[in-house]
Every structure is written in structure tokens, then in C-alpha cells.
Write a structure and sequence with these properties.
alpha/beta, Rossmann fold, 2 domains, 7-stranded parallel sheet, 15 helices, about 45% helix
């Protein structure tokens, strides 16, 4: 009889993509897979090879908003009951949680029923839901060498962030320093994307003409800023492809010479395995400032610049771009340093840990 795994993950791509990477590995080994997430997560679940996809209501509990907190507790309680019912019926051999409040019901139910649990933390700071279950989990595994907020006594292992098969396949190419045309990839993430969507076109428009003429820009741009970005690039004579979302992001990662991005765990991990020199802009409202902590390894290796939001102006970005894009030696060294920090075998390592735990 096939082994069964229940994946529990929050609704953002940052939680769902590592779950997808693990699912791809285990599915190829004959495992049966189920997924528990919220309505947002189901939007990212199309490529997850799960026979069962269970929706739970997301509920964020904040002490600052007592009424919302009470509502959240009721939703989570209802979610735990549903998760217990499903686990008793489907009988998974293990539950793996990837953080986010939608993962709470499955983890609470699993630990109360004695089902083995593994927690995967993508960021360099342990998320709030994972903190609740860390001590009782069989393993807590992390994407970075540093894991802040880890409860004492938790069984912690560093394995990296599992990356999707398409990204890993694209990373096999060798990074080549640009000689003439320079490919810049700009990705803004789902939160706070307006800043990158609007400042980057303005900054690139300020570059000297001889540099602008060498650029090929691919930019993830929120819908509200799309017309502005397209016009700004056109007026500056810059070749640019702008869209709210790219289904083939791995293709653009593979062809990029330089990337400007938020410092979410998946983005930083992809930048590492791709060996991309980068400018990272941590999301200021990120919980526990985890994006800044995520970005530090690349900065410390000399592979990236970190620019806080309050410094992210068109003039400041222009200055950084001029310095970095005109320095072939830095680009080459930054690429090599980024690759040295990458963990392309994270999905395999997590799958092996799952197999060893059941």
C-alpha cells in the first residue's frame, strides 16, 4: 500500500511552491498526496499532484484586534475539527506543514492524534504558526543557515528551500557576464509591489542613453501600474516586457544578468541557485522583518545590495545600477558567490527526511 502525506500550507506562493516541490518528488516515488490550504492557496495548487485538496478558512489571530482574534479562534477551531475528521478518514502517514495560518488546523489535528509532523520554514525567522508546533514536531527544517525565533528544544535541521522542478532545470545553465545586451529581471512580489512597479521604470529612465540602449527589461508589474511602466520605458527608449505575472518565470531567471526583487524566501533561494547578482528590497511590513534577514547571506557574500524601502528612490536605484551593471568583474564574482550559497538538493533532502520519519 502506498504511503500517504498530507501537506499543509498557507495561501501564498512562498508557502505553496516548496510544498509543490516536495509533492513532485514524493509523487514520483509512488506516494499519495493530499493538500490542505485556504482559497488563496488553491489558486497556486494547480500543479501540485494531490488527489485530495481540502480548503480551510484562513484566520489570522492578532492581539491588537480582539474581535477579529475571537473570530479567528472560532475559524481555527472549526478548521481543526475538519482536519481531524479528514485525518481519521484518509489516514496519512505524516503531515508536513509549510507555515501560514491555513496550516494550523492540520498540524494541530495531527499532533493531537499522534501523526508524525515535520515543519518546513522557508524564511530565516520562524513563522508564528510554526513556532506553535515546533517543540512537538519530529523535525523543524529551514531554508537558511540562520533560524531566528526557534523554541529551545526543537529538533532543527538546515536543508534549504525546495524549488520547483522547472526552476531547477533552468538553473543548469552557466551564468555569462553580459558583453553587449544586459537582461534585467524585476519581480515585485504580491505585496507592496507598487514600489518596484513604479520606481524601477523611473530609475532606468534616468540612466545614460548608452546604457539604456543595451538593456532588455522584463518586469512583473501590477495591473494598476502597467500602463505607466510601459510608457516610461518606451519614452526612455528601453526594450521592456511588462506583465502582472509570468507563467514561465524560470525562463526569465535563466536569461537574466541581474535581478531586482523582494527578499521573500523563494525569491532569494531561486536567486542563489541561479547565481544571479541582485538588488534586494525587503518588504518593510514583513512579519519580524524576516525579508531583511533572508537577504543578509547574499549581501554578506558580496552577491547583492540591500536597499530598504525608505531609500528606494529612482535616483538611488539609478546610482546602484550604474555601478553594478558597468562592472563585469563584480557581476561575475557576485554570480559565483550566490551559487555557493544555493541548495539545489533541498527537495530531495526533504523527501528523504519524510521517508525516514514514517
Amino acid at each position: 500500500m502506498s504511503k500517504r502525506i498530507l501537506l499543509a500550507a498557507g495561501g501564498t506562493g512562498g508557502h505553496m511552491f516548496p510544498a509543490q516541490a516536495l509533492a513532485e518528488r514524493l509523487k514520483s516515488q509512488g506516494w499519495e498526496i493530499a493538500l490542505m490550504t485556504d482559497v488563496r492557496g488553491l489558486k497556486h495548487a494547480g500543479r501540485i499532484p494531490a488527489s485530495e485538496k481540502i480548503e480551510v478558512e484562513a484566520a489570522t489571530i492578532s492581539p491588537r484586534h480582539p474581535i477579529k482574534a475571537m473570530s479567528g479562534v472560532l475559524k481555527l477551531t472549526k478548521g481543526v475539527r475538519s482536519a481531524k475528521t479528514f485525518i481519521k478518514k484518509w489516514k496519512p502517514d505524516i503531515v508536513v506543514g509549510f507555515g501560514g495560518y491555513p496550516a494550523f488546523p492540520a498540524l494541530r489535528a495531527a499532533q493531537s492524534l499522534g501523526v508524525p509532523t515535520i515543519l518546513h520554514e522557508q524564511n530565516a525567522v520562524l513563522g508564528r504558526v510554526n513556532r506553535v508546533f515546533a517543540k512537538k514536531a519530529h523535525h523543524v527544517v529551514s531554508g537558511f543557515e540562520v533560524l531566528q525565533k526557534l523554541p529551545e528544544g526543537a529538533n532543527w535541521t538546515v536543508i534549504g528551500n525546495p524549488l520547483r522542478a522547472d526552476v531547477l532545470a533552468a538553473s543548469a545553465r552557466a551564468y555569462k557576464v553580459p558583453r553587449k545586451n544586459i537582461n534585467i529581471l524585476i519581480v515585485g512580489g504580491s505585496l507592496g509591489a507598487r514600489l518596484l512597479s513604479e520606481v524601477m521604470p523611473q530609475a532606468i529612465a534616468l540612466l545614460p542613453q548608452e546604457l539604456r540602449e543595451r538593456l532588455n527589461v522584463v518586469q512583473q508589474t501590477r495591473k494598476e501600474s502597467l500602463a505607466f511602466a510601459v510608457k516610461t520605458y518606451a519614452d526612455a527608449g528601453v526594450k521592456a516586457e511588462c506583465a502582472p505575472f509570468f507563467d514561465d518565470i524560470e525562463t526569465h531567471l535563466a536569461s537574466a544578468h541581474y535581478i531586482v526583487a523582494r527578499a521573500g524566501a523563494s525569491s532569494v533561494s531561486e536567486i542563489m541557485v541561479m547565481g544571479l547578482p541582485s538588488l534586494l528590497v525587503p518588504l518593510a511590513i514583513a512579519m519580524d522583518d524576516h525579508q531583511n534577514v533572508n537577504a543578509l547571506p547574499l549581501k554578506n557574500l558580496g552577491a547583492a545590495d540591500i536597499l530598504p524601502e525608505f531609500e528606494f528612490t529612482s535616483e538611488r536605484v539609478k546610482t546602484i545600477l550604474m555601478e553594478r551593471l558597468n562592472d563585469s568583474t563584480w557581476l561575475k564574482n557576485a554570480s559565483q558567490s550566490a551559487i555557493s550559497a544555493g541548495k539545489p538538493d533541498a527537495a530531495r533532502a526533504l523527501a528523504e527526511l519524510v521517508v525516514a520519519t514514517v
